[in-house]
Write a structure and sequence with these properties.
EC number: 3.6.1.66
Subunit structure: Homodimer.
Shape: globular
CATH architecture: Alpha-Beta Complex
InterPro entries: dITP/XTP_pyrophosphatase, ITPase-like_fam, RdgB/HAM1
Number of strands: 6
Low-confidence stretches: none
Active site: 67
Structural class: alpha/beta
Largest sheet: 6 strands, mixed
Number of helices: 5
Bound molecules: inosine 5'-triphosphate
Strand content: 25-35%
Binding site for Mg(2+): 67
Length: 198
């Protein structure tokens, strides 16, 4: 099965390849370099579908898209779908520093957070329209650290301490993150769907 990965985020591409390569060696992943649609959905699932539909229509291939982000309990789930641009731009250091500043007065028991990942799978029909659509989701529970640490991963990993660890996601070996993360959990649900399309 050849699938196109509808993301421009190179970190996601790497994690996808490691997770998918181990679980489904028969899959060939091609990068997407077509137009980026406007992500104006109100949920992770809607935005993932918007990205996957655009890539499926542009390439005629089965398309996968990932919409993900960090949801902080005491902020009512924010940044959520706005994670990539929380401080206004795509600079992940500025984004995580703003989030740390917003939580600066909040003591440890109230710093709960989770990552969410929605993976949309869209297969075009013979006419090039979306013939098949499914969304698989996963969450990774944890809490926000009080300072950034670690150099692996990307985005908010340096300030997220997953449940069951006392170091940040950016301090975990990539194999550990890729076995436990929201993206790994979403793939656990996505792989049987992909296997049916193969
Ligand atoms: P594409 O839309 O091209 O896939 P993007 O980075 O804009 O790339 P999103 O809109 O889904 O993707 O935003 C996801 C943001 O959430 C991402 O930029 C990170 O800031 C954060 N994020 C998602 N998964 C993460 C992870 O595994 N570790 C750390 N931060 C993550």
């Amino acid at each position: 099965l050849e699938v196109v990965l509808a993301t421009h985020n190179q970190h996601k591409v790497e994690e996808f390849q490691r997770i998918l390569g181990a679980a489904m060696p028969s899959i060939t992943v091609v990068a997407y370099d077509g137009p980026e649609p406007v992500e104006d959905g109100v949920s992770f699932a809607e935005n993932a579908l918007i990205k996957a539909r655009a890539a499926a229509a542009h390439t005629g291939l089965v398309a996968l898209a990932d919409d993900s982000g960090i949801c902080v309990d005491i902020l009512g789930g924010a940044p959520g779908i706005f994670s990539a641009r929380w401080a206004g731009g795509r600079d992940s250091t500025e984004n995580l520093e703003l989030l740390l500043a917003q939580l600066s007065d909040i003591a440890d028991p109230h710093r709960g957070a989770h990552f969410t990942c929605a993976i949309a799978i869209v297969a075009p029909d013979a006419a090039g329209r979306s013939g098949f659509e499914q969304v698989a989701s996963g969450e990774w529970p944890g809490r926000l650290a009080s300072a950034a640490s670690g150099a692996h991963g990307f985005g908010y990993d340096p300030i997220f301490v997953p449940d069951g660890h006392d170091v940040s996601a950016a301090e975990l070996a990539p194999e550990v993150k890729n076995a436990e993360s929201h993206r790994a959990r979403a793939f656990t649900a996505a792989i049987p769907i992909l296997q049916r399309l193969a």
